[in-house]
Amino acid sequence: MSGCEPGDSVGAFLCQAGQVLRAAAVEAPRQEARLLLAEAMGCRQEDLLRDPRAPVPEAAQARFRQTLSARARHVPIAHLLGHAGFWTLDLLTSPATLIPRADTETLVEAALDAFPDRRAVRRVLDLGTGTGALLLAALAEFPGAFGVGVDRSPEVAALAHANARRNGLAERAAVLAGDWAAALTGRFELVLSNPPYIERAAIMGLMPEVALHEPALALDGGPDGLDAYRALAAALPMLLAEGGRAVLELGQGQRGPVEAVMEAAGLRACGCRDDLGGIARALVLESGS
Question: Which domain of life is it from (predicted)?
């Protein structure tokens, strides 16, 4: 950021940072510049806008230059901030797992549609829990439920547990490191999963924030993108309680193929909810028996 000397104003830093991010083809350069500067200064974005002539402290300048440079290299902003919003939660993030996305909130909406009586859900399971986003959002909405999150990575499972504490839900959540349903017994009224579903050959064609900075294990759905769904199809009949529902995230164009995989395992699609972009995102399943 040439031209930004110590004592330069908030407005000058934001102007030049917006230019840097725009040149790097970051999608929302002005908004992200505000986020990064507010984080560096330990204030709210509103405070920056209230007094654009205010000086930026030297320590904040150094922090801001560092994070701005990383963002221009397409390091995800959630990794730079260390947290991200999801549903009503604020979640710690890590390069070891996917960043929570607004599209995934569609699964929470679908679960609420499936259980209008919030008391009907007593046990929740989240397979591939990552940050714990789905598990914790469900527990926030079904106040009488206890939830279990499973992730293959012990590091990620520890992050989800930290997020349960951060959001006041630790007493109602258990997070396990394991191979999805392999170590589970018992049945659940609600099973949630955002599995890996990107076709392996397509991963490097994704936006650089995803392809270069999010874990391949959480993205790679195998040659056709359906490997994780096949594993879920084998496990779900043993995990769903009577009257239970599973809600799975889908990639674009995957509704038909995933329904076929599930029906072959004795599961029946009983609903599907689109995300805000009109993509079939949340498939709702019930036992076919």
Answer: Bacteria
Please give the average per-residue pLDDT across 30-42, as a whole number: 94
Is residue 229 part of an annotated ligand binding site?
A: no
Question: What is the DSSP secondary-structure string of 38-89?
Answer: HHHHTS-HHHHHH-TTSBPPHHHHHHHHHHHHHHHTT--HHHHHSEEEETTE
pLDDT digits (tens, 9 = 90+) for 232-288: 999 999 999 999 999 999 999 999 999 999 999 999 999 999 999 999 999 999 987
Residues 153 and 91: their CA atoms lie apart, in Å, by 17
The one-letter code for the residue type at 222 is G
Distance CA 128, CA 216 (A): 13
**Which long-range contacts (C-beta less than 8 Å, at least 24 apart) are formed by 277-281?**
277/103, 279/103, 279/250, 279/252, 280/250, 280/254, 280/255, 281/103, 281/104, 281/106, 281/107, 281/249, 281/250
> Does position 4 have pLDDT exceeding 50, yes or no?
no
Question: According to the annotation, is 128 in a ligand binding site?
Answer: yes
CB 145 within 8 A of CB 108: no
130 known ligand binder: yes
87 is in an annotated binding site: no
3-state secondary structure (DSSP) of residue 141: helix
Query: Tokens representing 288?
Result: 């076919």
Query: Does residue 158 register a pLDDT over 70?
Result: yes
% of the chain exceeding 70 in pLDDT: 97
